[in-house]
Every structure is written in C-alpha cells, then in structure tokens.
Design brief:
Layout lengths: L5 H6 L7 H13 L8 H15 L3 E5 L5 H8 L6 E6 L5 H9 L7 E5 L2 H4 L7 E6 L6 H11 E10 L16 H14 L4 E6 L5 E6 L1
Parallel strand pairs: 1-2, 1-4, 2-3, 4-5
Antiparallel strand pairs: 5-7, 6-7
Helix pairs in contact: 3-4
C-alpha cells in the first residue's frame, strides 16, 4: 500500500475545494507562469472558513492573480456581503476576469485592474476584512492603506509572510521581495494598533486584528 504524505492526508480530511476551483487551479498552473501563486485547496478552504467566522460585509483583496482566493472568500460571504479585488498586472485581466465572471459567486465580486494603494481609497468604502497578497516590496505601504480603510475590530490577512523561509536565510538578504516581507513583519510586530499571529502554513499567513 502506497504511503500517503501529510499534505495529502490533510487535503483528504478537509472540505473539498469543489470542481470549479479545482479546474481554475489546474488552468492557473497550465496557462500562467507562476501557477504556484494561486492559493490552492488548503488555503482556499481556510480563507472561506475565516470569512464564515469573521462575517465581513465588505472584503478588500490586494492581488487577485487568477481569482482563486477571491472566489474562495466570496463563497463564505453572507447576506449582501461583497468583495472588491485589485490586480496591478493588466496582463492577467483576460484570464482572471473570465474565471471570476463565470464563477457561481460572480455577483459578489468586483474585479478591478490597478494599484490598490492609490485606487482602493477612491472607492470611498470601509472594509471589515482585507487580504494582502500583492507586491511583496510594498507590503508596508499596502498595510498602512488597509489600516485606514479597516473598521475597528476588522481583520487583515497577509499572505507569504514567511516567504519560503527566506526571512531567516541570510543568503536572501539582498533580495528586494524578501526585504519587503521582513520590513512588513517587523512593522506589524511593532504596531500597537493591532494584535497579530503568524500561521506557519504553506508560505506563512499572518492574521492581524485592528484593536
């Protein structure tokens, strides 16, 4: 009998991702250069669960990529809940817009091309939850923008905060993205406005609550 690794064991003991997200994950890995950037089964189900727990009315996502995380979070929205997601890379628009528009939760998602740091405040909205998964070099700037738009008691989720272990590997000290993540982690750790915890799953996910 073939041994099952721990990752497979976990995926076999959580909710399935569903056929649509599975097909999106496969298409992302086949047709985009950085397919591993998609959230995937485990993180997608965690994001949906966190939305169920937090019960936000409005979610802001920074970094749509192929739309996997946006769809996963939108699945957890209730009532009139809605998600706004920004992607700065306009080359992803044709691929991502089709998958979002054809999804069962398309009516809960507004997909926008542009720099969220400057464009999200122009929406004139307050958000109960923000998911940061954009340019690692500008995580601190994105965080400060998000804090201005976040309701009291709201949550920020920041992805890739362990950066494949590079944050503790000195051979990556000169890498700009690693520097951006380290700067962000230090900034949040010293921020008295929030509570925070890092989950060492996948590439690191930081949960932040605004006091």
């Amino acid at each position: 009998m073939q041994e099952m690794n721990l990752d497979d064991y976990i995926l076999n003991h959580i909710d399935p991702e569903g056929d649509y997200l599975y097909r999106l994950w496969r298409a992302t890995n086949i047709y985009t250069i950085h397919g591993r950037m998609a959230s995937g089964h485990l993180q997608g189900r965690l994001l949906r669960m966190l939305v169920h727990m937090i019960r936000p009315r409005r979610i802001l996502e920074v970094g749509t990529f192929s739309g996997y995380s946006a769809i996963s979070m939108a699945e957890g929205l209730e009532g009139e809940g809605h998600l706004w997601t920004f992607e700065i890379n306009d080359e992803m628009e044709d691929f991502t817009r089709k998958w979002i528009d054809d999804s069962p939760v398309a009516d809960r998602i507004t997909f926008l091309i542009g720099d969220a740091i400057t464009e999200a405040p122009r929406l004139g909205l307050q958000f109960d939850m923000v998911f940061i998964d954009g340019d690692k070099r500008t995580y601190v700037e994105t965080y400060e923008m998000a804090m201005q738009l976040l309701t009291r008691g709201g949550f920020i989720l920041a992805d890739n905060t362990l950066w494949d272990g590079h944050v503790v590997d000195h051979q990556y000290d000169n890498d700009h993205q690693t520097q951006g993540i380290e700067r962000f982690n230090d900034h949040v750790a010293a921020d008295p406005r929030v509570e925070r915890v890092i989950l060492p799953m996948r590439d690191g996910l930081t949960l932040i609550r605004k006091k």
